[in-house]
Amino acid sequence: MPITEFRQALNQALEEEMIRDEKVYIMGEEVAEYNGAYKVTKGLLDKFGEKRVRDTPITEAGFTGLGIGSAMMGLRPVVEYMSWNFSLVAIDQIISNAAKMYYMTGGQFSVPIVMRGASGAAAQVSCQHSHNLESFYAHIPGLIVMAPSTPYDAKGLLKAAIRNDNPVIFLENEMLYGDMGEVPEEEYLIEIGKGDIKREGTDVTICAHLRQVGFALEAAEILAKEGISAEVVDPRTIKPLDIDLIADSVRKTKRLVVAEEGHKFCGFGSEVSALIHEMCFDDLDHPVIRVSQGENPLPYAKNIEAASLPDVQDIVAAAKKSLYK
Amino acid sequence: MKNIGKEKALQMLEQMIRVRRFEEGCLKSYQQKFITGFCHTYIGQEAVAVGAMAHLTPTDAYITSYRCHAQGLIGGLTSREVMAEMFGKITGCVRGKGGSMHVFSKKNNYLGGHGIVGGQIPIGLGAAFALKYEEKEGVALTFFGDGASMQGTFHESLNLASLWDVPVIFICENNQYGMGTANDRALANPQVSDFAAAYKMKGYEVDGMNLESSYKAFGEIIADCKKNSRPALVNVTTYRYQGHSVSDAGLYRTKDEVKCWKEKDPINSFYKSMEEQGWIDEEGYKALDKEMKAEVKDALEFAKESPWPPMDELTNHVYA
After folding, report:
1. Where are the domains of chain B?
2. What does the alpha-carbon distance between residue A29 and residue A138 come to, in Å, rounded to a whole number?
3. Which ranges constitute the DSSP H helices of chain A?
4. CATH no. of A3-182
5. 3-state class of B90 per DSSP?
6. Which CATH superfamily is domain B6-305 in?
7. pLDDT tens for residues B38-64?
8. Nearest-CA distance A97 → chain B (Å)
9. What ipTM was reported for this prediction?
10. Which residues of chain B neighbour A25 with C-beta distances below 8 Å?
């Protein structure tokens, strides 16, 4: 199976779906002539022309609304935010319009739009460029939220997102764009709402998404050396959430650590923790432990930035704590 | 009037009276607590939407704010469908899920009534973008109020429309107030059409109290937009007789001011012009008015008798 870079897997998904369906078009800042700030859309302008690969001015509310209106008329836009931080100036369009449209029109107007881009912390870009917005968007009925951790998942999920009739929030991470992974040559889709066991284990379950999956796998290696068998579950889509997969794993291991890059309060880990306590209370040998970012804006300085972000050692410590070690 | 012709004139007069009587029915039903939530009426502004939408073809799209009943009725929804929505009934145009502020009709390309001031402007732009993308000859009329014209979405949309040659017509229904704030207290320049020049598109000032003027102006603007695939910005001077919504007593304006605007009433002035042409007489007008009142009465009865949404409607249509 070919080894493919994360950004290239996304690029393949976009290209394949644009070939398949003329109604798919891309717009965003620097997506065309510049080939994408992170090169996810590299080469697509040359292949599809400026009608379907469009550079926008820096007006997220305007071009997001434009995308929503065009989706209501039957097109299938893929909107790139150079980073999800900038989606905050378009959040009224995303929440009041894209998310609510199908419902408030009594099922008349669906909004098949994909909004994608880099999310979360990168490397020392300080607090306005490091938002983790999973919990914001997953809170809203009507939105689908995806957060792939591997090139394989990224390609399969993006293709599924483009073919889906709902607005999709597709979260990527800048630190993952250069990751390499197996991506088959033949076409495949990943079912929305279906998680994946990234490593099997028996003693503790670690639920992680996006960049935390890699950290969880590293943590599992360290734990294995200490005789602890950790299972790593990647939900891949935050909403709808494959809670059954997580619950099945917890029923086996009796312990759960949820690792996320965002803040703890009202975060994704809080939701998973609540659900697992509701579903698996009698199975648990330890309360669910949340590993997350500190309750502070993310600072610039390297030492305190690192101290704020969850890492491999935080996951290792949490897993051991769940085993009373 | 000659350019309009008798048949079209009668049709538009009927539409204006339908809207007025419908809105009066809404006000009464709101007092009776059949309609709840927010409710914004179009009384006084009828000549704007009627004059603009008279030129639309089935390919064209249109969208507006929460003051959205009129566009639904003019575009082809029945009084029953819209009134039942006001009442929150399953027979309403969006199955009782939207109410007064969210009238939509997919079959008529009506992209609806929107509750966030200015939020619908880029969506109207997107509808026009889609028409052009699919090489259909069409425009999207994007209605909004003067209060929305200082939102970022307005300026972002004008910029994108001009930059990408999108056939969208931005229609500012300048009814002089953003809720209780007079537009000269909110807009550095209340002559909203001036912004057209800044975005290198054509700008127009239209008298929205006079249907003849409104019809003529929009005929030319829409034809030009279709021919050249260029956006336009239209500032339409108009006035709402009622408060911003039914809960607004309108204490920020004088009785004399309201009286002065009512003297320019669009229905009355258009009827007089038709009478001068010999196209209608008092008897004919009364008959038409009676017909519209009966239609609204029927719609009210239909809405009252219609069932509430069944419980499964609560979770239906969250996802497509």
Report:
1. 6-305
2. 24
3. 6-20, 44-48, 60-72, 91-92, 101-104, 134-138, 151-163, 211-225, 243-253, 268-280, 302-308, 312-322
4. 3.40.50.970
5. coil
6. Thiamin diphosphate (ThDP)-binding fold, Pyr/PP domains (3.40.50.970)
7. 999 999 999 999 999 999 999 999 999
8. 8
9. 0.97
10. 133
